[in-house]
Amino acid sequence: MALGLGITAAQGVPRADEQEFVSQLAMSNMAAIQLAHLATMKAQDSDVQKFAKSTIESRLKAQKQLADAASGAGIRWPTKLDDKYRQVQERLSKLGSGQFDREFMKVTIDQHRDFERMLAAHVSGRSDAPLAANVNQWATTTLPEIRAQLKEAEDVSGRLGKAE
User: Is the pLDDT of residue 75 over 90?
Assistant: First the structure.
């Protein structure tokens, strides 16, 4: 018998779909952090540099809070980028500085939109199961920060477009 999104009554362990959701969030955070680190080394525009540093700080904080929310749930935490994000990182690393800035911001906006959709969907799906409830609380707190970062990314990207 399942109790909401997270715990199965019979086993007392989080359901696989909830564990997968947390793993996807962790992967997205890890990718944002690593891509932002790349931007701190390659970006030429000062706004892109500033945004990348801000992203690293906020996503490291979010990652730690997510780990705390999922503590004890047996989540397999990602240790390296998956193929999708690794390919994005490789593609960005090969770009010249002017191209890099625009492409990094485009990738970042897309990633923030995806992350925002994931969080918003989770926030709307309530559950009393411990893992789901903890992650829901984390998502509720993190969603406004992600929306603010998305707005900032769109603003920076817009300024880059006007500078051409």
Answer: no
Mean pLDDT value of segment 26-41? 96
Q: How far apart are CA 115 and CA 63, in angstroms?
A: 13
pTM, to two decimals: 0.83
Residue 7 forms beta bridges with which residues?
Answer: 3, 14
What's the topology of domain 2-9+16-72+82-163? Ferritin (1.20.1260)
Rounded average pLDDT over 50-79: 90
Residue 1: CB atoms within 10 A of its CB come to 5
Q: CB–CB of 4/127 below 8 Å?
A: yes
Question: Alpha helix locations (H) across the chain?
Answer: 16-42, 46-69, 83-93, 97-124, 130-163
